[in-house]
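Key result, reporting period 2: structure in, sequence out.
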């Protein structure tokens, strides 16, 4: 089923790109969500409307979890579901940047089995099906094999470098870069363009699901900040941060991080 599910996601992602392309980011109508949850534009809603009509109709037995749909506990009763971010990097989209993505995934019993991260403005389509490898525009991709952090370039927002997160009180010596879309950061690591990524804040499943499978199918490792496997379709739909990269980089980052706990202040969204 993974192969046919992946074909379904690829077709839907390309249609999402066509819909989003009808809008000009800076002029698209925009609102701020309640409780500081960030912006949403008319493009996000138009893409979500198409996906919510198209995907469940093609797979009637699958549940639904999307950033732009009202959540329902009914999804927890489904073994398989769609996990969707109609536009990951909405701020980037609204500013007129090209660094935003459609993130589409299918998870079965908590594990992602098919995934697409599509950047229509950059003509980049990352895809993976469980056990079948990862591709960029149909060409196989692999994570980098950098053996040590002091030779690595890591995608991370600045708040992740604060001393409270690291056992030594300071982060290890690595080069830092940043991209606004979490899904794109994960895909770039899968491609080998960067050696690892981390986000230490609680992260929504829809930001992570697709990129997590693409990384692991590209030979990398992707866990939460404590090193535990990622599980999807949880009641809160949130993960305890994400650490990803080739095995050596992932393990070195995990060893350097201070364990999270109830008393640890959380990094603000980035």
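The corresponding designed sequence is given below.
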């Amino acid at each position: 089923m993974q192969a046919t599910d992946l074909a379904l996601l690829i077709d839907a992602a390309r249609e999402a790109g066509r819909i989003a392309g009808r809008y000009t980011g800076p002029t698209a109508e925009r609102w701020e969500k309640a409780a500081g949850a960030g912006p949403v534009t008319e493009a996000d809603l138009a893409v979500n409307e198409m996906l919510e009509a198209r995907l469940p109709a093609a797979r009637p037995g699958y549940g639904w979890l999307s950033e732009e749909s009202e959540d329902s506990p009914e999804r927890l009763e489904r073994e398989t579901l769609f996990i969707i971010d109609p536009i990951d990097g909405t701020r980037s989209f609204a500013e007129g940047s090209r660094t935003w993505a459609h993130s589409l995934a299918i998870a079965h019993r908590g594990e992602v089995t098919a995934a697409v991260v599509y950047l229509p403005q950059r003509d980049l389509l990352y895809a993976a099906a469980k056990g079948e490898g990862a591709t960029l525009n149909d060409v196989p991709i692999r994570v980098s094999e950098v053996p040590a952090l002091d030779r690595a370039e890591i995608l991370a927002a600045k708040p992740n470098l604060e001393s409270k997160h690291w056992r030594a009180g300071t982060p290890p010596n690595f080069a830092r870069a940043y991209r606004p879309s979490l899904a794109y950061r994960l895909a770039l690591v899968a491609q080998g363009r960067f050696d690892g990524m981390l986000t230490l804040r609680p992260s929504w499943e829809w930001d992570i699901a697709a990129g997590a499978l693409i990384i692991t199918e590209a030979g990398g490792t992707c866990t939460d900040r404590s090193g535990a496997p990622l599980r999807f379709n949880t009641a809160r739909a949130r993960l305890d941060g994400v650490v990803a990269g080739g095995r050596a980089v992932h393990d070195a980052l995990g060893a350097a991080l201070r364990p999270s706990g109830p008393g640890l202040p959380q990094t603000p969204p980035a």
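The chain has six helices and 14 strands. Residues 149-256 form a domain with the D-Maltodextrin-Binding Protein; domain 2 fold (CATH 3.40.190.80). This case is discussed further under Risks and Mitigation.
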